[in-house]
Amino acid sequence: MLSDYSSSDILNSEALQILRSLDNFQGKFLNELIEIFERDSPAVYDRLVLAIEKNTVTDAMRLAHKLKGMGANLGTERLSRVLEQIELDFTSFDEPTRKTLPTLIWDEYQAAVDALRTSWWAVSKAG
Amino acid sequence: MDTNARYTITLDDDASISRIIAQVTGIPSHGFATGESLMKKAGSMDPVAVFVDVHLEGNANGLDMIPELRKIYPFVPIIVQTSDPKDDLIGQALAIGANDFIRKPINPIELTGRLHARIQEMSARKKIDVMTIGDIEFSPSQSSVSKNGKVAYLPKLETQLLAILIEQRDLIASRDELKQRLWGRIAVSENTLDRKISDIRKALSEVGSLCVVQSHYRKGISLSYIAEEKKLG
Helix %, strand %, coil % for chain A, to 5? Predict the structure, then answer.
């Protein structure tokens, strides 16, 4: 079983604020990072799902770590928490739990991307 | 200093990291996704710092690159970055030649603070390392002699021999003393010492130095700077 992560915010507002400050809140830099994330992360997600489905433990843990890191740069708090559990505890999950993981990760991934886009839009509008 | 020429290197399979480092430090960062791609270019690059991620594409480990990078960049800070919660990786990185580490996600204040401290530290180390004699700079740690941008490298024993000759500059060191200091109690022939001297002469000649290693019949060897003798004469 995954431990409860739903109480976490989708995004870490402090991390986002730091990224925004790096280009004086213009939003261009944040947008660039979101684009890199949207460009590179789907391939990692696909490989992670494949590793989970094939029960390739080492790959599943390594790819969960990688996707966690990619999102953590942007403050994807809740997605990172889910992925960290896979990274550290994948071997302890029972079969029914493992089967739910691809959908769970995808839902959190989408929620994170949507929240990032909304956040960027808010910054751009303010700028 | 020409800030346009300054850059860092980032070894990380996450493309956003080199962008974040560049944005935080204010200088470009050349990103490499694999150790192989970095090592192909590293010899021709002159970065102010190198950032190395631990977990790279596939099962590659960025830490494996550190000893090789340290050889290429003896005075450039190598900073390991990781989001891995295991602390032993950091200890391992420091033990094989990294100067520092930063946690991911990157905290800009931590990054700039550590980067500046390590650049200063390595710069101070470099100053101590370089000895100037006559028209050349000699670096024992890099085993190199250089003059006006030309560099020649020496093997280990030749480096030690040149250091002794510089230490005794203009004084004649007996061949027995030199052999004793280089090989200790191991008996070596005169030819062996002569070959080392010949290699040093070759290196000095390659960089166009006016420093000469002179053999003094039945006395020994000395190193002097010809330009000074001419002035005095």
Answer: 80, 0, 20
